[in-house]
Amino acid sequence: MCPILLCFSGGKDSCYNMMQCVAAGHQIVALANLRPAQTDELDSYMYQTVGHQGIELYADAMDLPLYRHIIQGSSMDTSRDYSKTEGDEVEDLHQLLHLVKLSTKYGVHICGEGGEYETFTLDCPLFKKKIVIDAAETVIHSADAFAPVGYLRFTKMHTEDKHGVSLTSIRCVAINSVY
């Protein structure tokens, strides 16, 4: 079993990746998240920031420590073969990993989708508690007449104990290859 720090956005892909890590025999020992400094949505090329206000609830739901760092860079090198670029938002991940003194042996890999849809997972078999949205508001990020963009800002959330769920009964099959 390999202990891992999971870089987690709160979306479905992060949650799926988390399930695959556990199915492959790894132990998640902490969560990591990169967030914007003073805004709801950074529109980052690399990281999902929509819903970042609720990330603390994941740590509570999983009873794990959470390490967070502010994204200070922006997308500068978007080529397939990334090379260290001063001021690139990817470097913020390296700063976060340095702060929590991670070893390269943990194989941390961050992969952002940069897609059109962002998700925020409210429950997962690995959660000891579920996340509940009490209040939210819609924010228009771009009022483009052809393709407006909006997101949901969580204004009040909490975690609740799950009843009748046994973590030992969870079975997940790891995917060994991508088709």
What features would you describe in this structure?
With 179 residues, the protein is of the alpha/beta class. The chain has one domain (3-169). It is 17% helix and 26% strand. The chain has three helices and five strands; from the N terminus they run βαβαβαββ. The protein has helices spanning 12-23, 55-62, 90-99; strands at residues 3-7, 27-35, 66-70, 129-142, 149-161. Strands 1-2-3 form a three-stranded parallel sheet, sandwiched between helices. α1 (12-23) links the parallel β1 and β2. 24% of the residues are buried.
Task: Give a topology summary.
Blueprint: E1 3-7, H1 12-23, E2 27-35, H2 55-62, E3 66-70, H3 90-99, E4 129-142, E5 149-161
Parallel strand pairs: 1-2, 2-3
Antiparallel strand pairs: 4-5
Q: Tally the helices: what do you get?
A: 3
Question: What's the alpha carbon Rg, rounded to whole Å?
Answer: 17 Å
Structural class: alpha/beta
Strand percentage lies at 25-35%
Determine the fraction of residues in helical runs and give it as a percent range.
10-25%
Poorly predicted regions are: 102-115
User: Could you tell me how far the N terminus lies from the C terminus, measured between alpha carbons in angstroms?
Assistant: 26 Å
* Shape type: globular
The domain tally reads 1
Which short descriptors sum up this protein?
alpha/beta, single chain, globular, three-stranded parallel beta sheet, 5 strands, 179 residues
